Amino acid sequence: MLVVETIAKIRRAYFIEKKPIKQICRDFRMSRNTIRKVIRSGATEFSYDRSHQPHPKIDPWRDDLEAMLTENAAKSRKERLTLVRIYEALRNQGYDGSYDAVRRYASKWRKAREGASADAFVPLSFAPGEAYQFDWSHEVVVIDGATVTIKVAHVRLSHSRMPFVRAYPRETQEMVFDAHDKAFALFGGACARGIYDDMKTAVEAIFVGSL
Predict the structure, then answer these.
(1) Which residues does 102 contact at the CB level (< 8 Å), separation at least 6?
(2) Does 189 lie in the same domain as 143?
(3) How many angstroms separate the CA atoms of 92 and 85, rounded?
(4) Residue-wise pLDDT tens digits, 168-195
(5) Which of 18, 66, 99, 157 would you call most buried, defined as having the most Cβ atoms within 10 angstroms of its Cβ?
């Protein structure tokens, strides 16, 4: 959409500065039809769609820039170059365009890449009584004026998402058993299986080899 300020600049360039339409098109990067429409009309607002965004400076360097962006994206966060450094590297190879052109192209490249590589998530579905999830969290509370860290056991039914939460002074195996006992009493029974996230307090020992 063309705003009032841009329309005024176009009309000033044509009527006062006497610039030809061809030059105005280059200055504002708009088509001849759009410029003529602004000049001939008395409207103060226009909408126009650009079907193609030209990249006259970037086009010859597109493959090089995309190779740099791809290589940079594969690096760890600490090792990645800033876009300014990539722009400087491209200039060292002979690119004579602006940084803004590189920035705009990199932004479009990144959005296209994220759209193509978006993660797909498969929703989990559980039948009633099929499974429950158990995990610990560490919470900081104030007890009798003293700040202490407590361990909180979380048991949640996978189907209904009904939660059970109970706080303990420590994270021990005895506490794990007690939390399960209290949770199953609240739920009115136990599920067919439990889901745990690598919880050491639920495992006494791991044996390797045949029995």
Answers:
(1) 58, 65, 83, 86, 87, 90, 95
(2) yes
(3) 11
(4) 998 888 999 999 999 999 999 999 999 8
(5) 157
- Which is it for strands 131-143 and 163-168: parallel, antiparallel or unpaired? unpaired
- Residue 149 inside a domain? The answer is yes
pLDDT confidence of residue 35: 87
CB-based contacts of 57-62 (< 8 A; 24+ apart in sequence) = 57/95, 57/96, 57/97, 57/98, 57/101, 58/97, 58/101, 58/102, 58/105, 61/90, 61/93, 61/95, 61/97, 62/105
Of the pLDDT bands very low, low, confident and very high (cuts 50, 70, 90), residue 200 is: low
- Domain residues for the domain of 11 are 4-40
Number of Cβ within 10 Å of residue 170's Cβ equals: 9
Q: For 36-87, what is each residue's pLDDT tens digit?
A: 888 887 666 655 555 445 556 778 888 889 999 999 988 888 888 888 889 8
Q: Has residue 122 been placed in a domain?
A: no
Rg of the chain over all Cα atoms, to the nearest angstrom:
32
The residue assigned the tokens 């609240």 is 186
Name the domain count of the chain. 3
What is the pTM (predicted TM-score) of this model?
A: 0.40
Alpha helices in 117-189 (DSSP H): 173-187
| Tokens 């769609």 -> residue | 49
Alpha-carbon gap, residue 177 to 162, rounded angstroms: 19
Inside any domain, residue 93: yes
